[in-house]
Amino acid sequence: MGQAPSTPQPGTNLRVIGAGLPRTGTASFSAALAILLAGPVYHGGTQTSIGPPKEITTWMKIMRLILNENPSDRQQALTLINRQLDGYAATTDAPGSQLVPELMEVYPDAKVICTVRDPVAWEKSMTQVDGLVRSSWFLRVILLPLPGVRHYVDYLGLTALQWRRIYGRNGGPGGAYHKHIEWLKEVVPEERLVFVDVRDGWEPLCRALGMEVPKDVSFPRINDSEAITRTVRQHVRRGVIRWVGLFLVVGGVSSAVYFLRR
């Protein structure tokens, strides 16, 4: 997850489809692409969690349309994807990492690059996301007063349905990583698909894009887990504060009415 939502730059063409799963260095990957492509990168986790409310609601609509599995709804989803990513040089992270065939159809000239990580470490890191899903009732209540993120529990539910659609019923964190790699090899032409590990720095990524390594520029290093934890805590804190404010207002009004009626 990145540090702040990106803003589209009119006239920018999407050149890279980031197909890596969340928690595979997608924040560092996004920052590196922003440097190489000299344009804004759409990091799905960042945009849906701290971007404008329409970011998360639009992706929810897109996922529902695709899950319907009929041609007319799919075409509508492609139109929305094109509109959603207009002005960005690349897209990374979920939900795009589960919409690779659709993204390739919208952007036929874009390179598909999948960030990879040690599977065991990845599965361990995903337990945090599992924890969020298990506490969905708590999050739903806490986030209710907050525009945009109040939809996050439903967004996670739609994401889970997308994962099941692609990886099967056993497509949770325990089995999704390897199934995702297999799925990409099935749906993406070999000459268009590249796998990179952000721990390897600039060289593999620049080679995949046919670009020179930036001089005197360190490869970005952003901890996805820390960024996600920080964002969740901020939203929970904001939700609690908003609820306290609402209770104080209601309590104040109730007290005023009580004394006026005495």
From TrEMBL:
The chain crosses the membrane at residues 240-260. SUPFAM superfamilies: P-loop containing nucleoside triphosphate hydrolases. InterPro entries: P-loop_NTPase (IPR027417), Sulfotransfer_4 (IPR040632). The keyword Isomerase does not apply. It holds the Pfam family Sulfotransfer_4. It comes from the Eukaryota. Keywords: Membrane, Transmembrane, Transmembrane helix. This is NAD dependent epimerase/dehydratase. It comes from Aspergillus brasiliensis (strain CBS 101740 / IMI 381727 / IBT 21946).
